[in-house]
Amino acid sequence: MNINTTKIISLLFFIFSAFYLYTAYQIQVFAFDENAPFNARTFPIYLGYAGLFFSGLKLILPDPNTIKVDHKNLEYKKTGILILIAIIYGATILKVGYFLTTSLFLFASYYFLGERRWILMFLLSFPFVAAFMYLLHGILDIYLRDPFLQSIGVMG
Amino acid sequence: MIEGILIGLTTALTFQNILMVMVGCFFGTIIGMLPGLGPMTAIALMIPITYGFDPATGLILMAGVYYGAVFGGSTSSILLNAPGVPGTVATSFDGYPMAQQGKAGKALAIAAWSSFAGGTLSAIYLLFMAPSLSKVSLSFRSPDYFALMILGLTAIAAFSSKGQFLKAMMMVVLGLMLASVGQDSLSDITRFTFNNMNLTDGISFVLVVMATFAMSEALTIILKRNDPTSAAKQVSLTELGSIKINKEERTKMYKTIPRSSVIGFLIGVLPGAGATIASFLAYGMERNVVSDEEKEKFGKGSVNGLSAPETANNAACSGSFVPMLTLGIPGSGTTAVMLGALLGFGVQPGPRLYMTNPEIFWSIIMSMYIGMVILLILNLPLIPYIARILAVPKNYLIPLILFFSVTGIYVMSFNNFDIYLMIGIAVVATFLRLYDFPMPPLILAFVLGGLMEENLRRSLLLSNGSWEFLWDRTLTACILVTTILIVVWHIYKTFKVKN
């Protein structure tokens, strides 16, 4: 058997399906439902077996269309930074508020992708988010909590 | 039916809904032009905004984005030989050679008129077919629905990627597994939540769509160092040529359009098939039916060769609405996203939609006509200018896609756990995409997961735990036989290619 990344992904999926199946068997059902033809664990159990079946087949059968990825040409650094910025965004949005966090998220993303036109970067972050916020909050009536804007008295 | 058409027209012709069709078509055209960003991404980005509207308006907006994206894809196929969506690959076979001969304007005009005619004709087919099919589907029972869902999932896996059936089936199972997280709909027992309160209500559909399409596509573009906007920078406004179509070309189109629209519509109705297969089939059929002299021109700028796939891919878009509106079972990844959005509105698509929410049912159909006219107006004179707008650097495009993704999730739940979950799913999806694991089967399975479990539950309870319900009814058995035939045909094809 030829080992390639697709096979490794299939193996990981096989392990994941086994874990899913184990967890499915642990689902607590009501006593009167235990021997019913269908209860809360029936469908997940079938899914667990289906996952084992398809990933098992993918593991065993030869792979005629092997996908080769040239990792040297992949941009891991910028992708990683963008993911990190998104995580920081998630961590700060509730405390700081939508406007400032989102504007800084956009500004930082432009910067780390190599943009250096500061005025354009500014226009496409702070005023852009303000306009979008007005669309959501002011026109579409979707409430956006913003402690920062509340603290400076812009939002009620 | 006349009453329904009037209801539809009254709803679709309000100022707000016409505006939504225009916005949807414009936005869809722009996204559709960008290679790699298809209609599913465009619709996914729109979902949070649609929740501010009523269901009919929201769906009209999404439908506009859908056919706008297919339209936009054909423009980049003709001008740049870079199809924005898979459904417009066949358009480039004759559209791009035409553009190279200095007839880009004519090619765009042929594509625009063919798309308009294909979309309009198939909307007429939909108008007549959907109500009849709705009545027929009222006789469907739980076992039939369960079998139909198995058929839909198998078909989308079989058609999704050449030689990747098992990968697609793994994605189907993963989608169903994600859908099983949260409270069981009948007993309220929590499953796979690991005592995390944020998972009690399950994983949001919008979150999964945003993560697997919008966010993961943005990450993939950065990871692979692609620049979807670079091709648009090459478009020259001065080299488009005339957009006039002469009498001889019109005569050719008159013959091609009706037959391609029928093929496109019928393929679109089939679960899993969609615009890509429709356009290739129409192209192949057209090549077989034209004269030998015309056949020689195929691949070198044939009018028939351009008109056929363009008609078919737009007809297939309308066709794919048939199973969604009449059975409540989406036939493609894109309509699966729309179905999920409809469920989010609290509307249950299916045979009863025709009776319970006629304004939604009919306004979607009627808005298609309006959408086609708007697309024609957009595509003919404005496309070169839209193409220039696309020359925005990816340094701006990617953060904006990420912005719409995270904002979309945040405004739906006001919960940062959902943002983390979306990032996690997007990272896994990006990695899976690198190795050609298709995402549309995952979305379709995620949307159908709850319905599938519900129908299996009813079927098994009624048959007292016996699996005989699968062959008790003729209709169920026929659907299952079709599913088996698709799998057998797929295995046969795989082995034939190998040998």
Number of helical segments with 4 or more residues of chain B: 21
Written as H for each helix and E for each strand, in order along the chain, the element string of chain A is HHHHHHH
Regions of chain B with pLDDT < 50 over 5+ consecutive residues? none
The best one-word shape of chain B is globular
**Nearest-angstrom radius of gyration of chain A?**
25 Å
- Biggest sheet of chain B, open or closed, and with what strands and sense? 2 strands, antiparallel
Largest sheet of chain A: none
Name the helicity range of chain B.
over 70%
Give the assembly state of these chains: heterodimer
Q: What class would the helix/strand composition of chain B place it in?
A: mainly alpha
The interface involving the most residues is between: A-B, 69 and 64 residues
Order of helices and strands of chain B: HHHHHHHEEHHHHHHHHHHHHHH
Write the layout of secondary structure elements.
The complex is a heterodimer of chains A (156) and B (499).
Chain A: H1 5-26, H2 42-60, H3 76-96, H4 98-112, H5 118-123, H6 126-139, H7 147-151
Chain B: H1 2-12, H2 15-33, H3 39-50, H4 55-80, H5 89-137, H6 142-160, H7 165-179, E1 182-183, E2 190-191, H8 205-223, H9 247-269, H10 274-289, H11 292-297, H12 303-319, H13 321-327, H14 333-344, H15 353-356, H16 358-389, H17 394-413, H18 416-434, H19 440-462, H20 469-472, H21 474-498
